[in-house]
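Fold these two proteins, one after the other.
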Amino acid sequence: MYPAAAPQQVNLVPIVRDDDVVRVRQAVRTAALAAKLSLVDQTKLVTAASELARNTLIYGGGGRAEIEQADNGRKRGVRVVFADEGPGIADLELAMTDGYTSGNGMGLGLSGARRLVDEFDIDTAAGRGTRITVTKWAR
């Protein structure tokens, strides 16, 4: 068990241009190193973050990533929230289907990103935007 951590600062990365996706990847990698994630888990989290950041840009019309250290009292990790005010996901069930992709991303789709992280939560509605929260825990 880890001692309780002090409240962590959130690293807010706007996602409005293609190069912002690279900035999100770099910020997530830095946070994953600080959380002492293994190289494999760092790669999984950065890959998921890249896909979700690109989705935020392409489908949400831009938005932001909020990156923070996570601590549940037993383990530490990294939590990343992707938020946009775009059109939302009209058919979430279809979007979460394994293998489904619109063809514009890395080919992972939401279900692929979900498989790469330990926790995945999505809140979306047509006309309200989308908020996806992912967490990867250190092993």
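Now the second one:
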Amino acid sequence: MLSHFFSDQLIQWQHQYGRKGLPWQGYQSPYLTWVSEIMLQQTQVDNAKPYFIRFIKHYPNVQTLAEANPEDVMRDWAGLGYYARARNLHLSAKIIHQQHNNQFPNSIEELIKLPGIGRSTAGAILAFGFKQRGVILDGNVKRVLSRFFGIFNNPHYQRGNHFYWQVSHLVTPTIDCDVYTQAIMDIGATVCHVKTPQCQICPLQSKCYAEHYHCQHHLPIKKLKKKPKTLKKLFILPVKSGKVGLTRQHTSNIWKGLWCPIIIDTTTSVFDFSHIHYRHIIKDLKHVFTHQTWKIDCILVYPPNDLHNQIDAWYDIHQLDQIGLPKPMQTIKEMIQYEKNLLHETAETT
């Protein structure tokens, strides 16, 4: 059967050519698998590795993560983006700690009840963490399945996605499921590339639909992308006695729980500078989200008398490494550290 050829070839390939030595490999640990899988959502392997190593050093097991201060968790996640992942990790750890006595659930039904764990992440936890049969379906898997079997169903619609799950269930073996699961992820990441598939070294080449019909670049069916909106933002950093004033994001879906400057949307509104003393330290800093791009200007404001009611806390510049900051703020922090004398000026006019 074609499904047996598919899984057998991938398992053989994985033993010889698959990625080895990743920091989350070599351990049969549902916890390590879970953390790595969450980090690898929307984040490339090379970017995730240093974060994973640091995260596990600080939170080596479910209990330490569950008992951690949310502020510390957000700090250790800062820079990875998609911060709901960190909040869900912490919340799920607390549930496992309190309701499961620190023992990871080992069934798909119980795993997907945890915040932030979907079917594919649950399948990976079963395969790698428990050596059970677990079915996954991420972007790499969809691409490999679509090209090999010639699947023209649109994975971005419910019916098409359901069909992909059926195929993934069909080809996932019971024996060596963990090896197969790593193989299909690795072949998608290192061989079956989106734009430049390396078909000449692919173990599936001889029976691959897309290779036979030369339609690799048409599969899988792509989602029509909307052009991201560009928004102009003004970051205001009040300065007082060598400290900067920050506000904690409580409602923002983007940076909820992180410490930020006062943020003004200047795309549709104009900020009145006439009543303040300020200095520009950054102009046109670009930050790209999935759905929008921000062009950021940042100013230091002193004295910050009119802004006190918008500030949640004052931090010394040397304390900023101890709190969770979004990525643009990391750049701003470096600029401030480079010009520390700015923090000690009492007034400046433009």
